[in-house]
Recover the amino acids of this structure.
């Protein structure tokens, strides 16, 4: 398998792009048995007082072996099981973060290990960042692209904010462990990657109509990671060693693209805003959470359908004069550049194609299959852009124009 960092360096060099100052992980291992290297890395780095964070779901055997290795390497180790909320979900919220912070303080820790999937990583990246400590990533499922990113999407008083934090100092992705992850989590990782079709479109759109920063290297890395998953969808769905490795490599690469750009634009557009909206709604109404990537995959098809309709109908102009200046300017730009924008929308896969890929990856393909009803889908389409008002997705411009339409008599 191609060394991931070497591929990044080559891609950057081909563009004459400097990677100076970007806080990449020192070590990226994606191989069978990689978890065994964790304790040695920490000891060699002089990090001896380690808090290992997981939740009860992770196999006791992995936690036991890791803790045993840390002690054998002369480290002090403390294991924290993040507790679930009232409905039984471990979520990245204030309570979980404080639970980890208290343990870090009690042990006077030098470093924190995230042993888990996306949620555990976000709790740890924020708690470690707040404590000025490094964290090491040991992913247990190829379910999200957040392992190597540096933004932490966390729930504060029920609202999903993404706050700056840190990426891992090292990542030990053990394919023996990843391959045993539930099929639904593997399919969710594929769904998170499929969402890059619409996130990359939205990023390009925002750049075109507002001049917001765009980074070709991050965009190309993300697109290439997505293409490798499409290419291997059958192997991913069958959870072969090769399929799971390709998926995990893509998720790491997509996370690195966010790390390089410094924000999540390459990986997160309107499809993520729909997913976050549904997550917040489930939390508010006391329902058990759905997997992030499963929501993103289904939302990608919903957004692709809407954008294709807009390509045919055009945006609902007429009220742009009532928009705040920034949005008014963007609306004018979008009007002027509509032929190019239509062409970009035309390059998005058809929603049915997206759903067929999700099915091939053994995941839910539609919002109905996920248990998200039509009313909630429609409401999210109308309101989800408010989850990230600073991002000018096509959904946000469309909704802003609709919201400012004069009331008809
Ligand atoms: N920072 C970023 O850039 C990104 C962050 N995210 C965030 O990630 C979160 C979602 O993470 P996701 O991975 O989908 O789900 P979770 O981390 O919530 O994991 C879901 C459940 O699966 C369990 N689990 C993990 N690994 C295994 C395994 N090998 N076998 C059995 N069960 C396992 C988890 O336990 P455990 O908790 O121990 O892992 C948990 O109980 C969201 O909050 C999302 O916003 C998503 C993408 C990017
Ligand atoms: O989930 C993400 C990328 O997959 C990041 O999401 P946000 O941009 O909403 O933080």
């Amino acid at each position: 398998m191609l060394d991931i960092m070497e591929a990044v360096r080559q891609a950057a060099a081909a563009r004459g792009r400097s990677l100076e100052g970007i806080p990449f992980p020192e070590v990226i291992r994606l191989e069978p048995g990689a978890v065994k290297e964790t304790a040695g890395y920490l000891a060699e780095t002089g990090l001896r007082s380690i808090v290992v964070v997981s939740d009860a779901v992770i196999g006791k055997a992995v936690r036991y072996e890791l803790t045993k290795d840390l002690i054998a390497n002369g480290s002090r180790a403390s294991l924290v099981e993040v507790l679930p909320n009232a409905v039984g979900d471990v979520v990245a919220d204030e309570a979980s973060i404080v639970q980890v912070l208290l343990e870090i303080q009690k042990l006077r820790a030098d470093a924190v290990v995230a042993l888990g999937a996306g949620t555990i990583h976000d709790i740890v990246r924020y708690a470690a960042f707040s404590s000025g400590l490094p964290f090491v990533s040991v992913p247990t499922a190829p379910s999200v692209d957040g392992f190597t990113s540096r933004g932490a999407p966390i729930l504060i008083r029920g609202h999903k904010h993404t706050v700056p934090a840190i990426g891992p100092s090292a990542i030990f992705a053990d394919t023996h462990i990843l391959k045993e992850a539930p099929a639904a989590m593997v399919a969710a990782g594929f769904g998170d990657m499929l969402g890059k079709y619409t996130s990359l479109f939205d990023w390009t759109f925002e750049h075109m109509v507002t001049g917001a920063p765009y980074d070709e290297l991050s965009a190309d890395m993300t697109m290439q990671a997505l293409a490798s998953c499409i290419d291997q969808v059958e192997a991913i769905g069958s959870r072969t060693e090769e399929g799971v490795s390709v998926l995990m490599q893509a998720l790491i690469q997509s996370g690195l693209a966010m790390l390089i750009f410094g924000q999540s634009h390459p990986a997160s557009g309107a499809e993520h805003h729909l997913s976050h909206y549904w997550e917040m709604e489930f939390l508010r109404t006391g329902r058990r959470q759905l997997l992030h990537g499963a929501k993103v995959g289904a939302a990608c098809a919903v957004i692709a359908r809407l954008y294709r309709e807009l390509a045919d109908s055009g945006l609902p102009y007429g009220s742009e004069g009532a928009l705040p200046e920034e949005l008014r300017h963007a609306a004018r730009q979008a009007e002027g550049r509509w032929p190019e924008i239509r062409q970009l929308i035309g390059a998005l896969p058809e929603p049915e194609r997206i759903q067929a890929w999700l099915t091939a990856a053994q995941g839910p393909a539609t919002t109905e299959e996920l248990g998200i009803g039509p009313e909630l889908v429609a409401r999210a389409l109308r309101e989800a852009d408010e989850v990230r008002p600073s991002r000018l997705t096509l959904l946000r411009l469309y909704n802003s124009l609709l919201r400012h339409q004069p009331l008809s008599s």
Notes: The mean pLDDT is 96. Residues 186-403 form a domain with the Dehydroquinate synthase-like, alpha domain fold (CATH 1.20.1090.10). The chain is about 55% helix and 10% strand. The longest helix spans residues 292-313.
